[in-house]
């Protein structure tokens, strides 16, 4: 099989970037398997993708979070809701706001750190690096940006024959899903080392506990054989 960086891979990438999106067509044109085409395409740097923040919507979210945090601050520490529980509550009240968990988590963490005692650090202030393999962050970032690239490049156009549209959609969504799943399993392995249970991570992801445990353990087994 050709190695990334060869003339063959570069030719496949050029045709792909020029508008030939179907792996089947690229494979036929270059006389290679679809697997080789997918390998060549997957090495293309991800497209820039940004979602500009809507300050009016973020302002509304901040106000609601401040109310929720004030309610929690009045409670005993062991009765306060986790960032995830507050995110779920916020989502119920603001289903129309496009808020990421990362943004909400950061806002909650920053707010709570202002009230934390200097002599009694809160759990969110503790470093997690000790539980993370040195290459894990860059690997997971690669998986996520690759998934985003597949989704950004996917366009449903009425001018395509149905079979071609289905192939484009299923290959793109399938690749994105596989990479997101792999990133999720990498996080789960770190979570296990950090003392999180499958029950807790099941609540985070919405994946049934037994299913999540099997998927993560199968993934870990494949990666360590």
Structure notes:
The chain folds into 3 domains: 1-44; 55-126; 127-225. With 225 residues, the protein is an all-alpha fold. It contains 10 helices and no strands. The two termini are 23 Å apart. It is elongated, with a radius of gyration of 22 Å.
Put the structure in a nutshell:
The protein is mainly alpha-helical and 225 residues long. The chain contains 10 helices and no strands. The chain has helices spanning 7-17, 23-30, 34-42, 55-73, 83-93, 101-115, 136-153, 162-193, 198-205, 209-224.
Number of discrete helical segments? 10
The major pleated sheet works out as: none
Percentage beta strand:
under 5%
Helical residues, percent:
55-70%
One letter per element, helices H and strands E, the order comes to HHHHHHHHHH
Low-confidence stretches: 1-5, 44-52, 118-130
How far the N terminus sits from the C terminus, by CA atoms, comes to 23 Å
Assembly category: single chain
Shape: elongated
Mean pLDDT: 77
The SS-based structural class is: mainly alpha
The number of distinct β-strands equals: 0
Return Rg in Å. Answer: 22 Å
Q: How many structural domains can be distinguished in the coordinates?
A: 3
